[in-house]
Amino acid sequence: MGTWPDGPAVLEIVVPAHNEAGRLPAGLGLLCAKLAGFPVRSEVLVVDNASTDGTDDIVLSWDGGPVPVRLVRCARRGKGAAVRAGLLATRAPYAGFMDADMATDLAALDEAIVLLREGRPVVVGSRRHGRSVVQGYSLPVRRLGAITFNRIVRDLAGGIADTQCGFKFFDGPLARAAAADLRTEGFSFDVELLAHCVRRGASVTDIPVVWRDRPGSTFSVRRHSLQCLLDLARIRVRAGRAPAGRAPAGPALPPVQIVDVMPGPVAPTVKPG
């Protein structure tokens, strides 16, 4: 186990979860085991995104050992809404998010925290990095769609080749400011989140990952492709209207009520998103 100094967490990791009761225990087990030996004090925030399968009960009963695991409730459906709620609930110097299936090998956390502490404001995993290892990448049509999508949005997201890998870490204040401006609730939210960081002058560093396709993804090419394209069009229009360093015009997402449920007898606190 790592030797942590006393004090608040240095790194907080958000895990969005919609009906993840089947995959969450294994994912949390891997993540907590990794963070228990990590060089900085870390916490996990699981965002229950309107689940109906007992996902929240798993989090509430979870014993992460030395790694605190907190529950954030987000009743508004959508991965973008869940990540926004989770990032707004953080308070650490560094924050980021990972998918509940832990498709990205956790060894990438070692390089990410080194780069963050060196002053890199945004560090993202990239399956298209020359040194990445990608195993079992789903259907060919999904892979082709991902490549096409990323070519279209590369200019918005700091020039990186893979905007959709579920492994992204940030300077904490930057993450919270970008999340506060986030309007996209669905799967295209990564592009907008990165665009808000780039607009604030932040560079984006991509790192190699070992990525393994996991069964049970909630993304469907048939059901979600059209909505992703519509969201992308809105993101591009708003980005064109926004002066550097300022939020784009248009209505923000409605406020999200964030409930931090801490282990033990402490009563839940409610904060506006």
Question: Major sheet: size, sense and barrel closure?
Answer: 9 strands, mixed
Number of helices: 8
CATH architecture: Alpha-Beta Complex
One letter per element, helices H and strands E, the order comes to: EHEHEHEHEEHEHHEEHEE
| N- to C-terminal distance | 34 Å
Q: Count up the domains.
A: 1
Helix-strand makeup class: alpha/beta
CATH class: Alpha Beta
Query: What's the CATH topology name?
Result: Spore Coat Polysaccharide Biosynthesis Protein SpsA, Chain A
Overall mean confidence score, pLDDT:
82
Counted beta strands:
11
Descriptive keywords:
about 270 residues, alpha/beta, Spore Coat Polysaccharide Biosynthesis Protein SpsA, Chain A, 9-stranded mixed sheet, disordered C terminus, Glycosyltransferase, transferase activity, transferase
Structure in words:
This protein is α/β, with parallel strands linked by helices and 273 residues long. It has a single domain, classed as Spore Coat Polysaccharide Biosynthesis Protein SpsA, Chain A (Alpha-Beta Complex), CATH 3.90.550.10. The chain has 8 helices and 11 strands. It is globular, with a radius of gyration of 17 Å.
